[in-house]
User: What shape does this take?
Amino acid sequence: MNANKKYKILFVCLGNICRSPAAQGIFQAIVDRNGCSDAFAIDSAGTYSGHRGDLPDRRMRRAAEARGYSLTHRARPVSMQDFFDSDLIIAMDDNNFTDLMHLAPSVETSRKIKRMSAYFSGHSLDYVPDPYYMGADGFELVLDLLEDACRGLFDSIIREGIPSES
Ligand code: 4NP
Assistant: This one.
């Protein structure tokens, strides 16, 4: 790993109050547990700006807290600068992916966009569903999916190594 520059990951969903701040908190916990905190900068954002400044949804904060994750991120929309600053931009579902591809300012930056489902190992879904209009089970399912994908993502980065120019 490059000792000077952090590897920057941006998790993206629609509102930035449920899925992506939870992914951020879970991935940060994995990084911290593995003693890699200095090597990563983990952030999240939304393709929709209507929740700008909000804490994560109370239902998601409660469900995450029960698993040991404290979610304190404040919602913000994706910016153009994110495409240049991030090493990896992770979309929770196909709509997020398509929106990000349209927003990407260049082919090079669009190559940073990946689907969260690419990192699932124990689940057969091909997206992380929006829990906003679901019951409590929806939030638990999303956390299960995110814990699985975050482990897979962390393992893949460690296996492949963080590029030295990042
Ligand atoms: P998220 O969930 O994309 O996982 O943060 C949503 C939160 C809010 C809305 C949609 C999805 N909303 O339309 O307000």
About this structure: The chain has six helices and four strands. The first strand starts at residue 7 and ends at 13. The chain has a mean pLDDT of 94.
